[in-house]
Amino acid sequence: MLAKLFRKGSGQQTEFMVQLDAQQLAETLVAFANSDGGTLIFGMDPQGQLETTFQPEEIEYTLEEALRRCQPVVQTNWQVWESDTAPIYGVEVPRSNALHSLENGQVLVRSGPENKPLGGDAIRHLAATKSSGDFESEIVPGATWDDLDQTVIAEFRQKWEARHQRRWPGGDADLLQAFGALTPDSETTIAGLLLFGREPQFFLPQASLLFVRSQGTTLRGPNGLPGYEQRVEIRGPLAHLLEEAWQVIFKEIHTRAVVRNLRREEVPEYPPFAIREALVNAVAHRDYRLRGRRIEVRMFADRLEVSSPGGLPGYITLDNIVDEHFSRNPRLVDVLFQWGYIEALGLGIDRMIEDMINSGHPQPIFQAKTYNFSVTLPKGEPARAAIVANNWDGQEGLNRRQIMALNYMQQNQRITSREFHQLCPEVTAETLRLDMIALVEKGLVLKIGNKKGTYYVLK
């Protein structure tokens, strides 16, 4: 466990505290509780080096002082790891359903390796999400062990053991309790039914998925009649629902022939990762409290839409959706991560944008309403873009970011510094500026305008 935390380093759910500081500890406790929870390790740096040996009494005194600065008090659990030199102490902070702040009223959330303060609107949005309660941990009236699918449980157990390269130490009931599918009294929760139920939709009809395909650009045909030619309702536990939805969508995706280095390749009309990410996000992050609404995937002649009930969770907005992370359903997200459907926290949206641009499509369109969030994947010209990208790949000295920028200009005629940063959010503005200067010097791109009005076009 400790070695795994070192591999991750300081991040969304991990922090290392070399020196005891009550104020810094309070800020981290509040940020973890308001986000996805996390683990804080005392005395060691992120590289696993023991910098300071603390006595448990020292940590306990600092922790008590920090907790007095949290409003309300944050729940913490002690952790102890044995090492060759001395025991390593830490605290685990579970995600909280309450909104926590410091004594001065400041609200913080975890943003990567940092504790980030929130403003007024973001605080109200986060408070509204938390006030809904922990819906996925609620008990399902009438549901019993017999309503869970033993085959699905066995499949998940195999995935977990393969990921961790060891056997699960207990039985199936222990496994489900550990992931919130069963209560300590072996009662079935909503998360358990959604993840492992034989027929989850019998208890939660809103948990199905609807796929509709239309030959045109709307769902209406002539004379107001339905314009779709295929309609499929998909049911079952979430992992199987994802698999079946993917199979249905992939059968409907057309491919185009592209020649790369004298070899013919088949290019799908939408990048598979972008579809998969939109689909997994819809299933993992939808608001399952909303009845009468289900996830919908609509395929039109010019676009693919994935619509999920429920607005953006927590403090997430359209402006920070690429950089920030907050799970409405942390238990569902955890199990789907263990299953292999979610790669890592907060890494999917930026790659979705990158894959769309690299495949010759416009950027995905994100729309957030009070009770709905949707992702639209517009259709571009992947065959043409693949050929052009192949030509650029042959240019000596071009890096991945520069090829992404050239692809973007191919489809959108021009690119601004802000748009370039949206394509590569993990890179500094100075690095991107140097990338673009190099493209200008190579004679591939022209710089138009100056200062804030600057943009670039293909030469």
Describe it for me?
With 459 residues, the chain is an alpha+beta fold. The protein folds into four domains: 2-129, Schlafen, AAA domain (Methyltransferase, Cobalt-precorrin-4 Transmethylase, Domain 2), CATH 3.30.950; 137-203, no CATH class; 206-378, 2-Layer Sandwich (Heat Shock Protein 90), CATH 3.30.565; 397-458, Winged helix-like DNA-binding domain superfamily/Winged helix DNA-binding domain (Arc Repressor Mutant, subunit A). Helices cover 37% and strands 20% of the residues. The chain has 16 helices and 19 strands. It has helices at 2-8, 22-34, 56-68, 120-130, 150-164, 172-178, 190-196, 200-203, 238-252, 272-285, 330-339, 348-358, 382-393, 400-412, 417-423, 429-441, and strands spanning 14-17, 38-42, 70-71, 77-81, 88-93, 101-102, 108-111, 114-117, 209-214, 228-234, 255-260, 263-268, 295-299, 303-309, 365-369, 372-378, 415-416, 445-448, 455-458. The strands form six sheets. Strands 10-9-13-14-16-15 form a six-stranded mixed β-sheet, with helices on one face. Helix 2 crosses helix 3 (56-68), helix 9 packs antiparallel against helix 10 (272-285) and helix 13 runs antiparallel to helix 14. The radius of gyration is 25 Å and the shape is globular. The model is unreliable at 383-387 (pLDDT under 50).
Unreliable spans: 383-387
This entry's quaternary arrangement is single chain
Helix content: 25-40%
**Domains (count):** 4
Number of strands: 19
> What's the level 1 CATH class of the largest domain?
Alpha Beta
**How do the strands of the widest beta sheet line up side by side?**
10-9-13-14-16-15
